[in-house]
C-alpha cells in the first residue's frame, strides 16, 4: 500500500517541531486528540511510514513548520485517564478507552509556511486545511498537495 499523507496540528507551546526534533529518536506521542473524526483517521487509516505535515496551530503564526512521519500504530491515550490532564475524559474507562494516540517522528523542520502563503498556491486550492470552518486537528492530504507543500518549503 502506498503511503498516505496527513496534516497534524499541534499547539507549539505543547509540542513544537523543535520539541519533536529534540525528543528521543525525534519521536513524540500524539496525545490529546478529542475529536472522533480525527481519532478515526488515526485508528482506521494512518499507517507507520505515512507522511505528516507538522502544523503549528493556536499561536501567533500558524502554519506548516516541519515534516514528520507516522512512527507507530495506535494505542490508548493515557491522558484520558489522568484527572490532572487537560485532556482527561471521566467517561472513558481503561477497559473501553475512547481516545487513541500514535507516535510521530519528526524528519525535519521547514521554514514556516503560513496560511496566506498556502492559500496563494493554486495547487492547494482544495486542501482541507484551507476550507472555511475546518478545525480538525488531523486531516488527509493528497499526494499532489503533499508535493506542492514540499516544493513550497524548499523554495
TrEMBL record:
Pfam families recorded: EVE
CDD domains per the UniProt record, alphabetical: EVE (cd21133)
Domain of life: Bacteria
Residues annotated as domain EVE: 4-151
Name the record gives this protein: Putative RNA-binding protein with PUA-like domain
Amino acid at each position: 500500500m502506498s503511503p498516505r499523507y496527513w496534516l497534524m496540528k499541534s499547539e507549539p507551546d505543547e509540542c513544537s517541531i523543535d520539541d519533536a526534533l529534540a525528543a528521543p529518536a525525534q519521536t513524540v506521542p500524539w496525545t490529546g486528540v478529542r475529536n472522533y473524526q480525527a481519532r478515526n483517521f488515526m485508528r482506521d487509516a494512518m499507517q507507520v511510514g505515512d507522511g505528516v505535515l507538522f502544523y503549528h496551530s493556536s499561536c501567533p503564526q500558524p502554519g506548516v513548520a516541519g515534516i514528520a512521519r507516522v512512527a507507530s500504530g495506535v494505542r490508548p491515550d493515557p491522558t484520558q485517564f489522568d484527572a490532572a490532564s487537560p485532556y482527561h475524559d471521566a467517561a472513558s474507562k481503561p477497559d473501553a478507552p475512547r481516545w487513541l494516540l500514535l507516535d510521530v517522528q519528526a524528519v525535519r523542520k521547514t521554514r514556516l509556511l503560513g496560511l496566506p502563503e498556502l492559500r496563494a498556491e493554486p495547487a492547494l486550492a482544495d486542501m482541507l486545511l484551507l476550507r472555511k470552518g475546518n478545525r480538525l486537528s488531523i486531516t488527509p492530504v493528497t499526494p499532489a498537495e503533499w508535493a506542492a507543500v514540499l516544493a513550497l518549503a524548499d523554495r
